[in-house]
Amino acid sequence: MTDTQWPLWEVFTQEGQGAPHEHAGSVHAVDAEQALQNARDVYARRGKVVSLWVVPSIAISASTPEDVGPFFDPGNDKPYRHPQFYKVPRGVRVY
Amino acid sequence: MTTVAPAQPPTDERERLADFEARIAAGESIEPKDWMPERYRKQLVRMMSQHAHSEIVGMLPEGNWITRAPSLRRKTSLIAKVQDEAGHGLYIYCGTETLGVDRSELVGDLLSGKAKYASIFNYPTLTWADVGVIGWFVDGAAIVNQTVLAKASYGPYARAMIRICKEENFHKRQGYEIVATLANGTPAQREMVQDAVNRWWWPTLMMFGPHDAASSNSDELLRWRVKRFTNDQLRQRFVNLTVPQAQAVNLSLPDPALRYDAETEDWRFGEIDWDEFWQVVKGDGPCNRERLAARNRAHDDGAWVRAAAEAYAAKHAAAAGAA
To answer: What ipTM was estimated for this complex?
Structure first.
């Protein structure tokens, strides 16, 4: 048998009910079942994690650093999407 | 030292470098897909892989004492600690892989003896007290280093460090508890723990690496915020933290030159035996060969587990295909 390191899986952990799944790191594993077990052994050793996702690293599509300008700028020039954009009469509590 | 002028990098390369250094100066973190100078990538691969190897080899001196731990409580703690070290190795290997190297390559370099790891793990664990003193000193020193690395400029490294620091505090406390218990024990136990302190003190100070003046990589690593403090600064911080802890359990540190400097509020200490440091780094410490042999044996002994996992996955994939 070859001494392979097997495919890479990205691990996402949810630390508590209602919390988002967050990227924790990665593991090597031969299949999804083993990836979940390895992720449990490496990233859920202290009882906080209530849910785990593993995703083959090659299945992830990501934006590139060069995208920072053009890809995200539709959101950059719209101050009217923020509450601070709006004036309220002095002395009124709106939130 | 050569006096050849460095080749002029292409303009856009220089611009990229200037951008990169400006980002670092502004405290931004660098992520795997960001442009980075080749030297930065290389330095990180070197540093992170050595760090990962140190976690893995660090399991060996303590692993030797699992079967001989004096109580079930001590044994469960020690097993948990050694397992943590394996996990820490994996966190950092996975961080290193984001720089475009394969873990199998790094593991291969460790097994062949090409890679370096922390020289402290080439010292033997002669008594149970060594397990306590390692937790107190070696993990204590690691916390001093890693707390700073948690703010390193490379995102995946910093994030692995944050995770590790949380766990490392348990290591230090369990070590100090062992030390305090022995220090309050029978005369023989006191003598055993003092002996362990005497043997581990200087090698622990060496863990922080050569003096700043002799540390070839320091300037660049500081400029790129891979390191935030110099070796000597971190060593001093560790000494300042540890001296009162030794006093609290009535143990002495084996340094006649140790004295408090009221002006700087530092504990001044004597000169480190750098000949011994370089000898151990270059492979001639008390246990270098033993550690490498043990690591290779463990890797070979695990081959059947890897084979079984593959066979099991193949069987299930075939069954799923047939269904």
So the answer is: 0.83
Tell whether the model's pLDDT for residue B320 goes beyond 60.
Answer: yes
Residues B132, B137, B138, B142, CA torsion sign: positive
- Best to test chain A binding among B29, B98, B306 (most A CBs inside 10 Å): B306
Distance between terminal CA atoms of chain B?
Answer: 68
Q: Do B34 and A65 touch (CB under 8 A)?
A: yes
> SS3 for B218?
helix
Q: Whose CA is closest to B52, among B99, B107, B101?
A: B107
Domain layout of chain A by residue ranges: 8-61
- Cβ pair B309:A30 closer than 8 A: yes
Q: How far apart are CA B90 and CA A37, in angstroms?
A: 14
**Residue B116, C-beta contacts closer than 8 angstroms, at least 6 positions apart:** B50, B53, B281
Q: Which of B33, B94, B313 sits opposite A65 (nearest CB)?
A: B33
In the block, residue with structure tokens 């950092």:
B92
Question: Nearest CB to B310: which of A24, A30, A41?
Answer: A30
Residue of B187, B168, B154 lying closest to B54 (CA atoms): B168
Mean pLDDT rounded to a whole number for chain B: 93
What is the pLDDT, as a whole number, of residue B11? 67
Q: How far is residue B190's CA from residue B193's CA, in Å, rounded to a whole number?
A: 5
Mean pLDDT to the nearest integer, B206-223: 86
Note the pLDDT tens digit of each residue in B92-111: 999 999 999 999 999 999 99
pTM, two decimal places: 0.89
Write out pLDDT tens, residues B179-210: 999 999 999 999 999 999 999 999 999 999 99
Nearest to B33 among A24, A30, A64 (CB): A64
Domain A8-61 grouped into CATH 3.10.20.520: yes
In chain A, residues with a C-beta closer than 8 Å to the C-beta of B90 are 25, 27, 42
Nearest CA in chain B to A8: B94
Contact residues on chain B for A64, CB-CB shorter than 8 A = 33
